[in-house]
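We both want to read discrete structure tokens more fluently, so let's practise on a single case. Once you have written the record down, we can walk along the chain together.
***
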Amino acid sequence: MKAALAFVAFALAFTSSLIWVLASWYMAAGWALLVLTGVLVWVISLDDRERRRAEERELLARALRISEDPWDSLPDRCHEAPDPYRKEAA
């Protein structure tokens, strides 16, 4: 009877420790997966922010090029026409 009781106690202890080890393993794996997912989302958001910044820089550069000299955006024949508002250099 004592041997059977000792075996049952050993089996319960072994099973509970096995469950504890597996639960710890799955919990550690869950935390690692959570951290890796967070890092992945962070990297994707950095890439998206950098792409948006590049688009904004391109739009700003295009706007500055257009506003530098309005004559550059006109057709070539308009360059030949005299500007009635520009004073001639003396």
About this structure: The radius of gyration is 37 Å. The chain has a mean pLDDT of 78. The helical segments are 2-68, 76-80. The chain has one domain: 2-80.
